[in-house]
């Protein structure tokens, strides 16, 4: 190949606060993957507690941008979607999928956290997100999003291994051959990222060294490192492990400095870690 792997990244652009395209671009570039951002909206900051946000919707931009790429015969090895603010944007993501049938289709179904949908995530978006998930190869819901996709109540109690596996399998039955659930509290007391590969009939877990603080953008960093790993030769558990370990470094660094949590993790100091490409070995069979 005469160029790096290339990803169309369909997400919002939050200017301040280190989430969505603001972290996805540097993460994938550091991993040697070219990103073509397809912004769905521009926000002055993310929506997590930084006051009245200045906002421009870009739903109308998505289809013409796709047509332009098609006209130029630009190839993409992956189409990766995240935070979507209107149900029409989900239709545009599906068009990207149709136009690039060979691309790896990664859907981070950003809809909520801690048992609650985000205020922008209307019932219509929740319904259509199911269609996008059905067309995906890999999905990366947190536990809240997994429950929404399955139409179940959020499980407040820690999950047993059997419950975790059952959720992974049932999500995979909706379409995607690989499912990774993030931030799962297990009955063993661990917090883990758990994954399932339907074709290989394999279940994986990577334990997280939990830090008692929450930052915006960690889900986006997780899914982008996972995507970068999958495009550059990692197996699913290796990519899960790489993503988990990298966020852990970002979180510990940021927590150590005691920075305002609303400003996100100190990605800039941690990016060199992603370039090392050591072989992950902390994952285990779930
Ligand atoms: N406080 C934390 N301590 C350790 N790891 C964390 C913490 N917060 C997030 N992570 C890591 O980042 C991943 C994604 O974060 P999560 O909060 O689950 O995503 P989302 O932002 O989509 O809800 C987690 O699965 C975990 O690996
Ligand atoms: C505008 C916007 N995009 C994306 C995200 C996703 O962030 P996370 O990676 O924490 O799920 C958020 C969360 O605050 C957000 O407000």
TrEMBL record:
Keywords: ATP-binding, Kinase, Nucleotide-binding, Thiamine biosynthesis, Transferase. SUPFAM superfamilies: Ribokinase-like. Its EC number is 2.7.1.35. It comes from the Bacteria. The keyword NAD does not apply. Pfam families: Phos_pyr_kin. The keyword RNA-binding does not apply. One of its GO terms (biological process) is thiamine biosynthetic process. InterPro entries: PM/HMP-P_kinase-1, PyrdxlKinase, Ribokinase-like. GO terms for molecular function: ATP binding; hydroxymethylpyrimidine kinase activity; phosphomethylpyrimidine kinase activity; pyridoxal kinase activity. GO terms for cellular component: cytosol. Residues 73-259 form the Pyridoxamine kinase/Phosphomethylpyrimidine kinase domain. This is pyridoxal kinase. It comes from Zongyangia hominis.
